[in-house]
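To close the chapter, one final illustration. This time we ask the reader to focus less on the individual chains and more on the assembly as a whole: which components sit near each other, and how the overall shape emerges from the parts.
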Amino acid sequence: MGGGEKRKSSFKNLANAKKRRTGPHLPSSILKTIANEKRPLNSDEGDDEIDSAYGDFYEYEEGVPEEESRKNNRYERVVNYEFELAEDCEVKTCFKLSLFQPKDENVESEDDDDDDDDDDDDRHSRMLKNVTELPISAFQGESKNKRVVFTEPYPESEFNPTRDVLEGKSLTTIDDFMEPLQGLHGNSQLSNMISRMRKDTQSLVHAPLPKPEQERLERDVANELVYKGFDIWVPLVKRNREAPTIYFNQDVNVGYSTVGAIASQFHPRTEFEMKMASLLDDHEILEAHKEDGARLLEFNEVSMEDHIKRRNHVAKMRSMLFRVDLKHKRIKQIKSKTYHRLKNKDLNQSGVGAFMEPAMAKEEAKKQEARRVKERMTLKHKNTGQWAKRMLSRGLNRKYDVTQAALSKQLQIHATLSRKMNSTKDESSSDEEDLNDGSDQDTSKLIAEAKEKILKTVDDDEVPISRLMSLPFMARAVKKKNEEAKEEGKRDIEELEKFGGAETSKKSTNVVGRRVFGAEAPKESEKESDNLFDNSDSSDNDMEDNELEAVKDNASPARNTETIMEAEKLDDIAGNPASKTTFDVALYASGSWKKMTGCKNAESKKASKTHVPISQSQDKKESSDSESDDSESDDSESEAEQMVDGILTCGSKETYEIPCQAELVSRAFAGDDVEGDFEKDKQEVLNQEVPEPEKPVQVAGWGHWTNNQNKRGLPSRIVREHEEAKKTREQALRKRKDASFKHVIISEKVDKKAEKLQTKSLPYPYTSKEVFEQSMRMPIGPEFNPTTIVGVLNRPEVVKKAGVIIKPVKFEEVNPNDEHPRSHQKQKPKKKGALKLNTRQRVIQ
Amino acid sequence: MKIKTLSRSVDEYTRERSQDLQRVFHNFDPSLRPMEKAVEYQRALTAAKLEKIFARPFVGAMDGHRDGVSCMAKNPNYLKGIFSASMDGDIRLWDISSRRTVCQFPGHQGAVRGLTASTDGNVLVSCGTDCTVRLWNVPRPSLEDSSISSENFIEPSATYVWKNAFWAVDHQFEGDLFATAGAQLDIWNHNRSQPVQSFQWGTDSVISVRFNPGEPNLLATSASDRSITIYDLRLSSAARKIIMMTKTNSIAWNPMEPMNLTAANEDGSCYSFDGRKLDEAKCVHKDHVSAVMDIDFSPTGREFVTGSYDRSVRIFPYNGGHSREIYHTKRMQRVFCVKYSCDATYVISGSDDTNLRLWKAKASEQLGFILPREQKKHEYNEAVKNRYKHLSEVKRIVRHRHLPKPIYKAMGIIRTVNDSKRRKEARRKAHSAPGTVVTAPLRKRKIIKEVE
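The assembled structure is written out below.
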């Protein structure tokens, strides 16, 4: 503000004036330098001061603001109080200054007060002269002539520096002291020294900081150090804290474990050890070792005889080796494979047989023969022993490889021992020969076998007489089938006879099992193709035959069981031929067909042969569908099904329109009201969970007998309560989760027994419900967990031993990025780390 | 017809040797045991009840002093030895297992206020209001119990007289320095009759001092100007200081976490600090109803024991706001000093009634040799109890403690006072502009300022 600034400047003027009048008489050059020094600090004020120093008073005249100059009346007139106030201020400050003055003068009155004490003045000027060595007139004139303006309450001194000094202006510099010395002897030296000192800033000694400040700095440094010292512990502490278990004193020293300690307690026990020990403990040898080893040669002396003996022995061994080598080379050069094979066999059979003498070999051969005979007689190695039997009976050979290996080895031994027998019987029987002469013989043999088998099966057709089979119609059917089968068998035999040579051999593979009839089937299907839809009976019979043969078949038991069912059912059908049961079989997948047949059968019996007309064309389509469904299944079966369809379709010639799905469903579930049942169920659940309030009834009691109560009706209170209860029930029902769902019942029943196992709020270290539930999911007891985990699951947080002193933590480097195994995994006591995920930890770091 | 029978292969049930354990086959299919949760809950409940039944924490009292026990020191190198000193200048060495005095250290003229032993357990340092620091050579523990026959007296190996009375002393871990607290903090060497270093920050007297066991060059002091200060001997300067609302009677460093310390405060709470961030406590441990006189950390660093002027000893988890255990007897008076034994199994308290009392750190722990199966059973019980501790019934049983009537009543009063304060605060907050009234948490509120 204008006023404020003015005040400041006026104050400065005063100060400057005072300086000019009372300060020491400084040469103008010094004044200049001072002024120059100050200039760069704040140039504006510096200008001011310089001006004032030279006596040119310059007051900053604030220009009249435009709005107050009333130029052209562009601005509204505003009464400016501020300015006036500023004037006031100035006055006040002046007043203040003047107020201070008398005091100053009082203080300084000793120096230059009034004219009363001339003596004093004299003395003072003399003193000044003594001190400053300047003429008295210089002081007198000053003191007398000029009125001094004091701005400081106390005289300037080293204890009371002026304001300028405090602000860092007009300080006494070393130049001030140097000035009077100019021109004196040694001045140049001194000034050189001083300039050198000025340049040398490094050895400059600053004034020490105040002590509290100093201490605070020290403490700051210390604090930083302490902080860093603590920081290095953080990874270690973190690891210990996060470990699921912390172990103390696991590595308690159990005694000596160094090699030296163990060796010192060694005592020789065996003969060899004794000998060694006697040598090791021999003083002479020890001494020899200690000295220079020259005497060791003496101890090591060998006699001539020994030497020769040894030499001879070595020579002998060498020659032997040489001969063996030669022999091996020769043998190696023989190229005959048979020779090598035989040799190897010999080597295998009797380790040293090759090198045996003939007599010995004979004996050995005898023994071998005896062994073989014995083996043949006893069959000892054919897994007939007690052990082998037990192993086999318990199926252990399949379980353990070792046992199996042992058993197979026994068999092998048996084979090797009994091989001689075979070889003696037919000497020249080799596999190749077998294969060569087999072809012709075998086909005939196979055919014969096939015939036999067929006949046998045909003859053996006697079905075990069960209760079902003993029923007359069953018996009839069986008889019929037997006849059919016999015919079939005959036909087969004929065929077999017809086929001969190589063809029969091919055919022979099909002799056994179902395929026999499978091969037959195409023939029949050819037949059927002519009269597929009209010749019902024949096809039916054929089919039955097929099925019945299948019953006897042993090759595919799994399928047989299914076909048995079918056959039986079809038997039933055959039993009462009138019942041409109808199936919408093709609507279902082949798997569900069997089931449906069963129930349909029953139904058909019950409903006494109801006919469901199926159009032929549709049926065809359906049958094709079914075929496509069964594409993976066997030909024979698909054919069988085809035939079934054939049967089914043949009986129905009326047109039929397939009903839509909904209609089918409604027809299927006709009679049971599912929705109604559900409604009822839901109501029941609701009543159970939110029970309906009991209806108030009049109970026998006071007033009952007077008939008054009857007249009055129920008390209003009871009625009201009942109403309220009803209302609350309705509200509760409305609040239920399943209130808006028509087809859903959501039970809100609280299981009181289970309630005590549940917590309402999440326990402390957990932050998420899922994690908590996961942690509670598995029981931790020994009954529910294998022994290997129980210990880990139940381990306490701190494992320590009573009676062992626990030392404070020792620093060790811990890699903070180390991955720790999860808390539930087993840990070695040494490794203490594991991350506990998702648990809120109050981390003090 | 095939008949299905139970069949067991012999080899799976046959032992190779007669010493082998019989193989037990167990089907761990959870569907076979649908009630496992209920079963374990019931076991937890039983375990909690058994724990209560077997809770017999008081092992024995050590009687012998003729005045209130003022301070104790444990022998860091010998589990059975504990030193105690009383207000009449009597110092005793006790054998914990037999609970008898092994020897006495007479010499102090006034109350002994500080007692500590060197890490090797050979030198005992005591100081007291008679302005002396005395060093004693601790007799080596002999195998045969000689203390029964004669109580031997031991002369001090050195006596240093100093300018002021002492309030506390503590020995550096694995070093030969010890610090005394009095008018200022003095660091002494075993061999010098004068302190090697002195610290003073402020003019108030220091009342407790404790070296950091993990970082042996750091120590913390508390002073009667309600301050806690951390000093670093390497820099021979204090590091940081905080001023709290009430005086701190004792300090304990966590031996497993060198940055953390816990201060026992006059207001009945303990405050856990991180040495790096002293401007707020990390945890406030509330439960005592009167000033906490002494505190000592378990060597495991997982819990600490406090003794209070309210005649009770409590055990707190290092990060828990409330105590897990309170020990009190009818005859126990104001507790002045507590110590956790070096194997973290026992707690020793010294009180105004001239007795030292030995407690188990875990009230229901079975002492002595435990067979592995038994140990497993204990562990399972503990684990299952810990697992279901949040369920109300288990929690109720585990938490229940009988309290002396004065403590119970005082707790009620404190609760009422706190409730009313909270209510008032809430109302004030509700009736002022939002954001103008901010409630600082207790861990910050109790700390007035941190001085640099």
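Residues 235 and 816 of chain A are 6 Å apart (CA to CA). Residues 81-112 of chain A form the longest helix (32 residues). With these observations in hand, you are ready for the problems at the end of the chapter.
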